[in-house]
């Protein structure tokens, strides 16, 4: 077992991530997270959009008290904030809420109201990407809930890979899972989920940029509907 030290270079970490991606491709999600906990310790965190708490729950089993980072954009559905509060109350995790430098009102004053309608990429950058980059400063590795079956842009997601943009190890322990796997885990362990998942929102983002999905549509079709945008920028 390799434990990451302060002396290891970016190239060392990149090599470690790529080797782990190969070695752990067929490992269970819990095994992947136990590897992360053993390797990175307190320099590892989980990020959660509070769509569900599956990865946070898995990580709490591998590393009780693990940091769970949540981005409060100021545009979330009340149900999403409620899910965060419930996760914090009942799970063995340390929820860390990140916020943008500007409130929604301050952003509106500088850029004009409803920036999300006029320039969603800039809005995501200001309210998601930049706060996450600041929030991840003290971590060497972070875990996400990305799955290969969610969209074509995520089809090649490694279970452990290298986040070139942030120069960090990026872990996607449920990358190989299907929605059925997620549902089974939620049912078996009584994991908290966002109530909106049962109300026509299979993918939950900021309220102004998320709508219900119609029958037969892709699970992420309700995100930035009517535009070519498919990702917020956190994952590429």
TrEMBL record:
Keywords: Cytoplasm, Iron, Iron-sulfur, Metal-binding, Oxidoreductase
Keyword Magnesium (UniProt): no
Keyword Iron-sulfur: yes
Binding site for [4Fe-4S] cluster: 123-124, 206, 209
Pathway: Sulfur metabolism; hydrogen sulfide biosynthesis; sulfite from sulfate
Positions of the Phosphoadenosine phosphosulphate reductase domain: 49-211
Function: Catalyzes the formation of sulfite from adenosine 5'-phosphosulfate (APS) using thioredoxin as an electron donor.
Name recorded for this polypeptide: Adenosine 5'-phosphosulfate reductase
